[in-house]
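Cross-check.
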Amino acid sequence: MGKLNSLKLLFKSDKEINETKAYQQLCRVVNEQSIETTNQLKAKDDKDVKFSSMQNPHDEDATYLKKGSKAQKGYSVNISETSNPDNPAQMITDVFLEANIYSDVNFLKSRLTEINNKTDLEKLIIDGAYYGPDSIKTAQDNKTELIPTDLTGQDPEYSTAEFELEHKQGIITCPMGKTPIRDKYLKSSDTYAAWVEKSDCKNCSYRDKCPVVEQKKNMTVRFKKQRYDCDSLRSKLKSNKYQKLQRLRAAVEGTFYALKRSQSQSMWRTKSSL
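Predicted model, tokenized:
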């Protein structure tokens, strides 16, 4: 790194050299991958080098990403394809390329409106990594139902999906139809809470699946709306109707297989959505 910095300083005042791509790339490497100490300039530790730093002088826009134990350099491509079983053939409706540090959620946010403009889209079958609060809002704005093939994270021990809520007011009934003696909605944290008689929970057949907690006087339950929505979606996705829809996404993997084969020597991190 010291030698590169010496070259940078040597030609610092040479305007002709400064305008060359090679010199600009040299400066970028020094600036992105080194740190100046009191005595010298030294290379940064790997963990301190940003993912957006230059990976290859022949491809300045390629970025670095580490997912789990796998390191990837290059780009991400997102492809959307129709998946209606009644179609005699399915059509690719959108192809979008970005640096591979571009998140799945950002792909959905940036492309869903465009896809909607091209097609009569009602349902979008996506990988679980695309799903999140921002994606939900984008889908609602575009009047599109998101159907993830899976949700990130493990299934919770207890589900809140069977509780009946009054939107932004409180919990109406528990999964067994019991009415709380008191309920509350906390706007600041978008949280629902309820207090139930101990006698209502004593011999309840749903007790081992319920998030209710015993306190001194009553049984209580408390959960955020985001948790409730996620639990409700998990429950819905287990139905036969939605499992059939989820399986439709497998078709787009053939498109990616063909792309990977044709670009086997290139730098890609592929994504897919339907």
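The chain has a mean pLDDT of 85. The longest strand covers residues 70-81. Passed to J.P. for a second look.
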